[in-house]
Amino acid sequence: MNRVLIPVDGSPNALKAVQHAIDRFRLSGGLEIHLLHVRTPLTQNAARFISRRNREAWHREEAGTALAGARGILDKSGVPYVAHVELGDKAATIDRVARRLRIDRIVMGTARKNSLTRLVENSVTNRVLELARVPVEVVAGESVSRLERFGVPAGIGAALALLYAAAD
User: Fold this and answer.
1) The dihedral formed by the CA atoms of 85, 87, 90 and 92, expressed in degrees to the nearest 10
2) Domain count, the chain
3) Which of 75, 84, 81 is CA-nearest to residue 8?
4) Which residue in 78, 38, 41, 37 sits closest to 56, CA to CA?
5) Phi/psi at 145 (nearest 5 deg)?
6) More confidently predicted of 32 and 161
């Protein structure tokens, strides 16, 4: 039995990874799917004003929303799965859960981004690729928007211009 971990954040790209795993399940049959939604904990400053019970309820509600699409696809397809919700750094938590569950493969959906954008931003996918000790299958999702495609290089250009002006 192949154990597959699919990180899910509610995005269309994550749902593409779920559909990809379903297609593999239909071909091979022996697949155990684990959905994982990782919640970022609130900062200490924010957490001190919200009761533990309210924080837990909020995380549970947000996780339910993020997992709903993936659960719907899997339920409709008749593919068995187990859903997990964890708090922590996304990439480190994905790796930790993969080890704890003895996962054979991680299947992740990701947006199609240019190399410059991936270099500048802190990509969860890139960090999982660095951390994971099991194969990581990356399923290409939607292209980035025009704003993202041109916004990041423009922002870098503006930052360089400011640095150049400040140097004078």
Assistant:
1) -110
2) 1
3) 84
4) 41
5) -70, 165
6) 32
Structural domain containing residue 76? 2-167
pLDDT tens digits for range 63-97: 999 999 999 999 999 889 999 999 999 999 999 99
Q: Directed axis angle between helix 52-77 and helix 12-28, to 10°?
A: 50
Q: Where are the alpha helices (DSSP H) in 2-123?
A: 12-28, 44-47, 52-77, 90-100, 115-120
Tell me the backbone φ, ψ of residue 136, rounded to 5 degrees: -115, 120
**pLDDT score of 16:** 95
Output the CA torsion sign for 33, 20, 129, 38.
negative
Element (H, E) at 155: helix 146-167
Which residues does 155 contact at the CB level (< 8 Å), separation at least 6? none
DSSP-derived 3-state class of residue 89:
coil
Q: Are 143 and 117 in contact (CB under 8 A)?
A: no
Find the CATH number of the domain harbouring 161. 3.40.50.620
Distance CA 130, CA 167 (A): 36
Tell me if the pTM is above 0.85: no
User: Length of the chain in residues, anyone?
Assistant: 168
Q: In what order do the strands lie in the sheet with 31-39?
A: 81-87, 31-39, 2-7, 105-112, 136-143
